Input
Amino acid sequence: MRLLSAVLKQIHKPPVYTSRQRCLSPLQDEALVSGSSQELVQRLSSQVEVRTAFITEEEEGALLRELEPGLKKKRYEFDHWDDAIHGYRETERVRWGAACEQVLNRVRSVAFPEGSPLLGPVHILDLDKSGYIKPHIDSVKFCGSTIAGLSLLSDSIMRLVKEDASNEWLDLLLPRRSLYILRDQARYNFTHEILKDEESVFSGQRIPRQRRISVICRNLPG
Output
């Protein structure tokens, strides 16, 4: 499904600065966002958001019960049409049970402006433990100014790098059952990726990455 457009980059890690927002997950002593400068962290603070414990264990279970039967029919793939993803299964879903629809409505209400036309199908991306997502910017043909994703089954690290200045970057700690939101400049001008398990380190702390399913909502181009 051609939902991603690859923009590959070599990323170097400068000194780390952290935001004041604190994680309420078991990694409670770690900040959620680190970056190449405090100025960048502050500048993008309204455009990059991570909400920990956005869904409960029960809600995660409800989502998995709907998703697993269809995902099990697919094989993990280790190439992608534009080389953006390795070790993945993906699908789209339009219809959901009542409990899952309630969760998705909550995502939509906090992530998108009221009245914003949304992309109908919800994108489901299942990464194997050895899988990863390379740096890319989602095509403007398929989605608008905002991307919102639930992280199921595993903690992970998302890295954002400025498309025309690779020394400007943010790392986001995405705890299991959290919601991330990317808006506007963070969506259009920065690549985003999910790090490999062996590279999954946040502010010097190892964040083991297991199989990860993301449930992604997008709005339509304006």
In short: The chain has four helices and 13 strands. The chain has one domain: 17-218. The longest strand covers residues 122-136. The helical segments are 38-43, 57-71, 98-111, 184-188.
